[in-house]
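Researcher: Hi, I'm a grad student and pretty new to this. My advisor asked me to get structures for two proteins we've been looking at. I'm not sure of the right format, so I'll just paste the first sequence and hope you can take it from there.
Model: That works fine. Here's the first sequence with its structure tokens right after it:
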Amino acid sequence: MNTIQKHLFIALTALGIAGAAVAQTAAVQAPQGRHAHAASQEERAAHKAERQAKRAERQAQRVAKLRAELKITPQQEAAFAAYLAAGKPAGRADGRGFDRAQLAALPAPQRMQQRIERQKQRTARMEARLAALNNLYAVLTPEQKQVLDSKAMRFGGKHRGHRGGHGGHHGERGAALQS
């Protein structure tokens, strides 16, 4: 009976040591999968380029679909191209994104002034888009206008189909605030 206990104790100890060794080698390996923080700069750049290529491909498909649904004629092509160009998002000239740390370092009046300037830029881009839309609308037939009216709100939107917010539909909150 005593020898069985000794053999069992030795076997369990060996399993414990083997399990610890496996756990140590797993901890040493670099993380893989979605949270691979050890990805190199080149890998991140490659993934970014791949995402941008896929986004450009999807955008080209949407443009082709809209062009086909509107049945754009050669005479309307220039106005349609101007409409598409006006709808492209504007990037920064230096290629950098918004810098929160830089904005936080500014005094409150300067932060407000920068926000006003950015809003003026957005308004100017929206006015340019409106002008391009009006030019396109002027050359479309009534049937094409009807198609564009049904598609224009969905076309080019940044968050198509995403409602967001904290629970409920946006209209529910507005109705609750009015009562």
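Researcher: Oh nice, that was easy. Here's the second one.
Model: And its structure:
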Amino acid sequence: MYMTFRAHIFRNISQLAKVKIMKIGGKWEELKIPSSIRSIICLNLPSFSGGFNPWGTPGTRKKQDRDLTAPYVDDGLIEVVGFRDAWHGLVLLAPNGHGTRLAQAHRIRFEFHKGAADHTFMRVDGEPWKQPLPSNDETVVVEISHLRQVTMLANGHCKSKSVEEPATPSSHGHENDDSDSLEDEDEWKEGRKKFGAADTFKLPDEVDIAHLS
């Protein structure tokens, strides 16, 4: 299962919604979203949009400093990942690339309020829709919780792993001992240049991006 929603290119998530999370056996607490984040993915499996792993596998330091774990499908946790823009999404093409890890939680709630936009775009398990947002003092609430499990068929090379299995899920069969180097704004800009995305990059007016393959 995965769910995504994004803000307008010139808006950030905090202008549209208040995000709250609940740990296992805990209480609701507000999740602070960096102002640069414009889209959020919530998922409980290490495969998204053609097999990419937005959460990745946190290295030893991140496990200790932020109490993060690998994305197991049966640990009762939902991984919450943020992205700044389309260029940020390109990090998934790089070895050990991942989005900005925001939280791991048993439940997550989005409380949309009247604000900077009248709608947002959402997608659940590949099905997109345009979600109207409040035009008055009402609140639109979207809540996701890790509830039950269903039996699934999987082959021996399946990326999804159980918390009961000794092997840590990763794209190359070993722990991704990363440093979250692309999660800091300055280092993200440097990483962006590695993909050839200069700050002044712009497609020519005569180029229709819809026709690019």
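Researcher: Is there anything I should tell my advisor about the second?
Model: You could mention this: Helices lie at 60-66, 86-89, 185-194.
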